[in-house]
Structure formats: C-alpha cells, structure tokens
Amino acid sequence: xxxxxxxxxxxxxxxxVAAEGDLGHGADDEEVHTFVGEVFDGVRTYLYxxxxxxxxxxxxxxxxxxxxxxxxxxxxxxxxxAEKVVHSTTLTSVSSARTRIERSxxxxxVRRLKEDSEHDLSVDGPTLAAQAIAAGLVDExxxxxxxxxxxxxxxxxxxxVRLDLELxxxxxxxxxxxxxxxxxx
Length: 185
Known about the structure:
globular; alpha/beta; 5 helices; Dihydrofolate Reductase, subunit A; eight-stranded mixed β-sheet
C-alpha cells in the first residue's frame, strides 16, 4: 500500500500560495532540486488540481531544453514516468502523457488508489490537499519552508482541521530553506 504525501513550498508564515508575488528565496537551487528529486523518487502517482497541474506540466518538456542542467532533466524524467490525475471541472484536455482528468475529488477512489499502489502518491496544491486532509487520507506532510513572510494567501494547512503530527525528519539548506517531514499519529 502506498502512502499519500502532501508537499509544497511554503512561506515562513505558513502560506503555500502568496496573495501577492512569490513565496520567496530558497527553493530554486541545485541542492534543493536534487533533494526533492531524491525524496519523491518513490512517487509514481501525482494528484493535482488544475492550477497546480498547469504549473507542473512544465516538466513534460523540460528535458528537451539543452540549457537545463542535469538535475532539472533528471527531475523531468521522473515526473514524466509518473501517473498524473488532474481534478478539475473546467479542464477539457491535458498536455502531458500518463495523465487523466477526474471531475471531482472522490475520497473513496483515492483510498483505493493508495491500497492498490506499490508506490507512494503525492497530492499537490493546497486546495486539493485540503480535501484529502479533511478525508483523513494524507499520511505524511513534507514542508519546504522559505525564509520569507508573505502576509497572506492560501495556507498550507486548511482551517478547521486538527492534526497531531510526529516530526520524523528535518534538514536545512545553504539557501536558508528548511525541510520538515511529519507523519500522522
């Protein structure tokens, strides 16, 4: 059975999407990219909302740009071999291989995906993740915390849900980014 992992870059004040601008410095260097590639090497299915999918579909062709360094190409190849499930009521087609559209988030279907999988799954995007968290489906939380306070936006953790978590790993990077991994108790 696979674990469902929720992971995002987040600001120091807990926002996965900033109301204005980006989440700040720290997540865009080789050391971090290489680590992310290692951490998510075991993920074979990505669950996305439309906006997150539209951001991540960059990886479908990233390997073809000769200007990209090897660590970018490596991550692109890993992303390409994974299955992608995009939860969207508005998206009419996808622009990546191994990708399908689901019109709604069905906790029972995600539970079956976990049970049937020999590999881990990832839910990406705070809106979709909020549904998975509320349904009790997320097994691990991976936060990549930048050094910026953004003052508002979409929170990493949804309001109205209590979680008691166990810290199982932490790491800091030269850029100032801090990685923490928590498991549900």
